[in-house]
Model the fold of this input.
Amino acid sequence: MRLVGSGIPCRQMVELVTDYLEGALSWRERRRFERHIAGCDGCRAYLEQMRRTLRVLGRLDEETISPEARDALLHAFRDWRAEAR
Ligand SMILES: [Zn+2]
Done:
């Protein structure tokens, strides 16, 4: 798996977003997360989308993210990386 920036792959970022927004990450994970966000447009857009969802619903859980949306995002990342190469 290709690593971006500080070393967290985008796929893992998707999994960390919920914990990040709930403040469940350790400071070390949070720093790596924020460093990745700073350099990755795709993950930043995803984080913003999740933030909006959280604001609307007041909470986040796995059901909030449809499997389709998650798959589409991961495919988008793959395409984007393929183009960048
Ligand atoms: Zn990313």
User: Anything to note?
Assistant: The pocket of zinc ion is lined by residues 4, 10, 13, 36, 40, 42-43 (CB under 6 Å). The radius of gyration is 13 Å. Residues 10-84 form a domain with the Arc Repressor Mutant, subunit A fold (CATH 1.10.10).
